[in-house]
What does this fold into?
Amino acid sequence: MTLLGITLVAPLAGCLLLAFLGHRKAAGWLNIGASGVSFGASAALALDVFTGGPQLSAGKYFYIDAFNVYLVALTAFVGLTTAIFSRPYMRHEVERGRVTDRRMRLYHSMYQGFLFTMLLALSTNNLGILWVAMEAATLSTVLLVSLYRTPESIEAAWKYFVLCGVGIAQALFGTVLVYFAAEQHLGGEREDTLLWTVLHGAAANLDPAVLSLAFVFLLVGYGTKVGLVPLHNWLPDAHSEGPTPMSAVLSGLLLNVALYALVRLKMLVDASLHTSLAGYLMMGFGLVSFMVAGLFLHRQHDIKRMFSYSSIEHMGLMTYAFGLGGPLATFGALLHMTVHSLTKSAIFITVGYASQLAGTQRIDRIRGIIRTQPAIGWSLLIGTIAIAGFPPFGVFTSEFLLITATMKAWPWLAVPLLIGFGVAFAGLFRHLQPMVFGEPPAGQKPLHANMLPVMVHLVLVLWLGLSIPAFLARWFEQATVLISGASPL
Amino acid sequence: MTQFAQIGVFNQAIVLFAALVLFTSFIMLAQTRMLPLIFSFAWQGALLAVATALVAFVSGHSHLYVSALMTVALKVVAIPWLLYRLTLQLKIQFDAEPVRHPSLLLLGGAGLVIFSYSVALPVVHRSGLATRNTIAVSVAVILIGMLLMIARKKALAQVIGFMSIENGLFFSAVVSTYGMPLVVELGVAFDVLVAAILFGVFFLHMRESFDSLDVDRLTRLSEARDSLPGHGEAGEAPESHP
It folds into this structure.
């Protein structure tokens, strides 16, 4: 548990320290350092849990099992690579005069604060604290979305704030209802009624009517943060107007954490209801998000907005897969969570460089990147190929698993899924082709770009597509058994 | 016999205060001027605190006294004071917002109350708590807060709606389970306080960029805008004017 302590304390300390030092030259390095310590500890923790099984902290406040430990490690990893990208990127933004010293302090401090809230949400054992951390994740990023203080960014941040705030309020009501059901069964005198470990043990005896009511509220609440259609309005705005490192962590991580909360609660509700109500709801919402977001990809004019819609599409697919249940779909969804995080954050990093290169985020002004700076052009091309689900990348593997699982359980749903893949693919590539291969405008000069994080992410995704390492497969299997109760292998 | 009568009186008092909390929700729904809106929000907090203290007294859960105190500190003093200062600073204290179809709005509120009674039915059936009759009221406060946010265009009114939703959530926890565990309530209170401060920061930013606190002006980001023919320089992405 000390490892978990380090994982959590490093970003918290970074948050406090950078509030004072965030504008210094060394702040970027400090940001990387705090994220690095956190990632190192989380990796060690992951190995620990992998060999030793689930851990419960002394005060029962934290609980780590196969499901959340892999998300903790993934979150810390993407946090680290994005921090590495953010150092030169934000310095470039300072040089262009888009951010002042004060805002750099805010940015660095809140970057670490955001990582802390996400790691807290993932590792806490208390459903109430889970909610508090999710809300705190919104609060810590809302001022970062409006970091540039343009009217557009302020509008985006306001939308993000109000929609996510109201949305997640529903989840708090759902949590109250879960607590109510637990108190009915366990008695009101106990202090530990809201702990996941206690609730999961008692889930079969919780009142089904109350829990199904609770799940509706929880789905709407956390679903807003996952970005499920029709609750997705904040997402493209918030992702496109903020600084690019924020887009990378929002898209790659925050959405995962919200989905994690939803899946945890679905496990409770399923055990109580003995029906697939929760699964059907998630399948419906997920499939609609998947289809609608794919269509919206076609009419985008802003490159970051386009990839935010692609995030909605993939989150919809994962929600659908978790709703489908069963070992194969769950395994696919877990794998998809990983590869989507890695690919999408790599894409956003590349997009950040591409828009710095072109001096705009408008798709019709970004032209011929591959000629001006091949590293960025190729990364954008390969990243998009990966996210569109082409072999041999990991996204293909997980999507293939999901289609196989769909064929087994609901054969006719494979049709909309396949159509959706096609629509999304067309939507991405009609915009991508001229951006990468077109004629570069005169005077477009290459810039100093650190492509290391992108390379690392894409190589990992490629590796996951070619062969899932044995230990990772066993790890996913453990998590799958935890969620769906059976092994896919 | 006298004991029963005594419990009955206190329970009646709880129901009375719950009704008053709901009543302030309706007042906020119809109140168009900014300062009275803030004051009615403070009143709602005060009534909520009294109701919570009464529940604490009836049920013997002493940690609810702490919650009641936190409610007073946060929702009667801190947040209204923060908003009051902001309205003076931004000189919007005499602003009134024309609300279209006020009677329809109030009817909608009444409809939501009825709806909440039907939503809360499964919970009320299973509850053995003395306060179960007010669960539906707390749901109604949440829903009316949302209606307020939908119906209003002023950012301040939306913030009041947001905070009133939070009041309803708090109340629902108090009356259905005698409050959440203290650590959770502290966390929620912290989030609400940070949210209130952030809203204040936003008012200043919005005034700077839009010269107004009308949410109606926030129309730059939408899919429809992007698809308009001839859309060009006006709505340019931030990069174009560093």
About this structure: Chain B is about 75% helix and 0% strand. Confidence is low (pLDDT under 50) at residues 1-5, 227-242 of chain B.
